[in-house]
Design a protein that fits this description.
Layout: H1 23-46, H2 51-76, E1 81-83, E2 86-88, H3 100-104, E3 138-142, H4 143-158, E4 172-176, H5 199-208, H6 222-236, H7 254-264, H8 271-281, E5 289-290, E6 297-298, H9 299-311, H10 319-330, H11 339-348, H12 379-393, H13 405-413, H14 442-457, H15 466-487, H16 495-508, H17 515-522, E7 528-531, E8 534-537, H18 544-558, H19 565-578, H20 584-587, H21 597-603, H22 624-637, H23 641-647, H24 653-666, H25 704-720, H26 726-730
Length: 731
């Protein structure tokens, strides 16, 4: 909505400009056109002499109904813009099947309800206190110092000079220094609480604090308690202004990093012992690991964690490894892993591609008007299956697959039958009941079976013209991977596509370590966090902007902001540096080139400039509620005298307007706000969810939390700037 960068629909009279797509009127018009087609088909069927004619007429009428709806909804009444011969919406809203909402009587893109009892996990996890302690010497290093430390470490390890791009503010890393005299980490006790308490980070921050400390006296009232709490948390604040912390939990993330580093020969160095400590600490009493640290054991978590221990150098005769193998074999071996685990095992070379369902790169070649297009998937889903399709369609093979002794041993250890006797294709759909949280639909299984003919039985993708399509799909996928790397300064949207992209650029270069590969390697530490339970891979490169935005709002609402000038000044500096593509550093960076409409069209990106991320500016992906909370934080900070003393005019009104532009552009046709982008797809996309362990991942839905955050931010902004886009904010 509002002012757009690039061609504006007002320059094209044939298409009426509208901030939001009027789905209901579009649907009614499409239904009228489709009803006419259906009535004609019905009359044709009534006049037919045979059953075959009736069937043909009915099928033909149905096809005309669908195609008519697509054509009318997409090409006639769709609000968008024409640019270089393309019909385009600035934020890629696709409503070509909006008329279905009238048929089903409600929106077609609402998430499902709660899981039925039959699909809920019934067993519970149980953990043992093993008395394991993290090796001493891990030190937190953040912001610019972390850039310098990483660049030097990569040079010392590889001889290659790399320079990290993007804003350094918010970056949080850990380095191992044997001479560092930090706290002696206590033994982790998961039986009491399987979450860490961040004792290493907190102890280092408290030891480094040189300012006033909170009173030790018991507060007499709530106001004194609030003041004491702020004084304490000020001691934990990082020098660049953000609040750091553990964002770990999932157990299936770090194995991907370990597998990729093992394949490519990138040495993890002292990280290995810290990772082993983490994996040992979170193994459960039954020998398995959960999909995340609080979950009961699953095959997803167990097989990948077991493989990780073996790749990190732990012997198969180790007691914990033996216990894990008992769990794996009791569930039928690795053939019962969910699809993501099978994919990782195939990359390593301990599973065969015939046992992995197709991930066709050709889908990227579909026209954008087609009802299903991967560009309309939820961005996390889209960016994970992007490198997956590249590696699958390239039939990536670990060059050490037949020579690595650990791989040969794992082939024997993971299966209950000899490796060369495993019926790979017959187990493509096999999934352990412990993991089957979101069962793959019969529709998707049928589609996979059809694709199995294309991929395996009659490998048509190897012959013309199908091989041309495959090559074109692979080429686009690699181009898209490169764009994601550059737009995010090689951090990438999340830890899964981070490591998959790293492997893809290595494979695309002929299994060689190029400059791109080392840029990826330099960003691995962005995802690694160290606590008393060991080193883990986080679900993001942190939650810096999110946590800090809430923290400062609490301080401001307490009315004590002026009592803590250093705290507020630092937070202001951090939030100012974290607004995406808004500082002098980020405006001169490569990601800024991708903000042009032409580049966003090419790679399916929403507008970014002016938004706030969940983590850091360098990450580069804005989110609706993160933008809203960042905006509210800045609106609260700017009036403070202590902030005005250091602001130096760096954060003018235009930057507030940019944030509002992002928020307004995020509103969906149903009135709500989704996460990263507008809703682009439909509820039926979930019928095609290939993942057994994740539900409602195919499209971005409107959420109450995102919507309330956006509305409250716009309300606060309107109080300060009542004349700016007032009608759009009210409407």
């Amino acid at each position: 909505g509002g002012p757009r960068r690039g061609p504006h629909p007002q320059s094209h009279p044939a298409f009426s400009p509208s901030p939001w797509c009027d789905v209901l009127s579009e649907g009614r018009a499409a239904m009228e056109a489709a009803s006419w087609v259906l009535e004609a088909a019905k009359k044709a069927a009534e006049g037919a002499e045979g059953n075959l004619d009736v069937l043909v007429g009915a099928v033909g009428g149905t096809l005309c109904l669908v195609l008519g709806g697509v054509i009318v909804g997409r090409c006639v009444l769709w609000r968008g813009e024409v640019s270089e011969g393309w019909m385009w919406s600035d934020h890629l809203s696709c409503r070509s099947l909006a008329w279905l909402e009238l048929v089903v009587g409600k929106g077609v893109s609402y998430p499902g309800g709660e899981k039925p009892p039959s699909q809920r996990q019934k067993h519970r996890g149980r953990w043992l206190d093993r008395g394991l302690k993290l090796p001493k010497g891990w030190k937190y290093v953040g912001a610019q110092a972390s850039h310098e430390a990483t660049e030097e470490a990569i040079f010392q390890e590889t001889g290659e000079r790399v320079y990290l791009g993007g804003e350094p503010s918010g970056r949080q890393t850990w380095v191992f220094d044997p001479s560092f005299r930090g706290v002696d980490p206590p033994a982790f006790e998961p039986s009491t609480n399987c979450n860490s308490a961040d004792l290493l980070f907190r102890s280092q921050q408290l030891a480094a604090w040189r300012g006033p400390k909170p009173s030790t006296a018991t507060p007499a009232n709530s106001q004194e308690a609030c003041r004491k709490g702020i004084a304490f948390y000020q001691m934990l604040q990082c020098d660049d202004g953000h609040f750091a912390g553990d964002y770990g939990g999932p157990m299936f993330l770090m194995p991907g990093l370990i597998i990729v580093c093992h394949i490519t020969g990138f040495d993890l160095g002292p990280r290995k012992d810290a990772m082993i400590t983490y994996l040992r600490n979170h193994q459960q009493a039954d020998g398995g690991w959960g999909t995340h640290i609080e979950a009961a054991s699953t095959m997803f978590g167990t097989v990948l964690s077991y493989v990780s221990l073996r790749l990190l150098g732990v012997s198969s005769a180790d007691t914990q490894c033996m216990h894990a193998r008992e769990f794996i074999r009791a569930q039928g071996g690795a053939v019962s892993c969910p699809s993501w685990a099978k994919f990782w095992l195939s990359l390593l070379g301990v599973h065969e591609w015939q046992g992995v369902n197709s991930i066709p790169a050709e889908m990227w070649l579909l026209p954008l008007w087609f009802p299903f297009h991967p560009g309309k998937l939820w961005c996390h889903c889209r960016m994970v299956y992007l490198p997956m399709c590249y590696l699958y369609c390239s039939r990536f093979e670990n060059p050490a697959k037949h020579s690595d002794p650990v791989i040969q041993q794992l082939r024997c250890e993971l299966y209950v039958t000899p490796y060369d006797q495993v019926k790979w294709d017959a187990n493509r759909h096999t999934c352990c009941p412990l993991d089957d949280y979101s069962p793959v639909t019969l529709f998707q299984k049928a589609a996979h079976n059809v694709l199995a003919v294309y991929e395996t039985y009659l490998p048509l993708w190897r012959i013309p013209p199908f091989n041309w399509l495959r090559k074109a799909g692979i080429k686009f996928a690699m181009r898209y991977i490169n764009s994601e790397d550059l737009q995010t300064n090689y951090i990438d949207i999340g830890p899964v596509n981070k490591t998959l992209n790293m492997l893809s650029v290595w494979a695309d270069a002929g299994n060689a370590k190029t400059k791109q590969f080392y840029m990826h390697a330099a960003r691995l530490d962005d995802y690694l966090w160290v606590a008393e339970d060991g080193m883990k891979m986080q679900g993001y490169n942190g939650s810096q902007s999110w946590d800090t935005s809430f923290a400062v709002q609490a301080v401001i609402e307490s009315g004590m902001g002026e009592e803590f000038p250093l705290l507020c000044q630092r937070i202001y500096t951090f939030l100012e540096r974290t607004q995406i593509l808004s500082t002098e550093v980020s405006r001169l960076s490569v990601p800024m080139q991708y903000e042009e409409l032409r580049m966003r069209k090419m790679f399916f990106r929403h507008v970014s400039m002016g938004g706030w991320p969940f983590s850091t500016s360098a990450h580069g992906w804005p989110i609706s509620d993160c933008t809203a909370e960042g905006l509210k934080g800045m609106l609260g900070l700017l009036p403070l005298k202590c902030v005005r003393e250091v602001s130096d005019g760096r954060f003018g009104d235009q930057r507030l307007f940019d944030a509002v532009n992002v928020l307004l552009s995020y509103q969906n046709a149903d009135g709500g706000w989704a996460t990263y982008e507008n809703n682009r797809g439909y509820g039926f996309y979930e019928w095609m969810n290939p993942s057994e362990v994740f539900g409602d991942i195919m499209i971005d839905y409107s959420y109450v939390e995102c919507s309330s955050a956006a509305m409250t931010a716009l309300k606060k902004f309107s109080e300060k700037h009542p004349g700016h886009r007032a009608a759009e904010i009210r409407g």
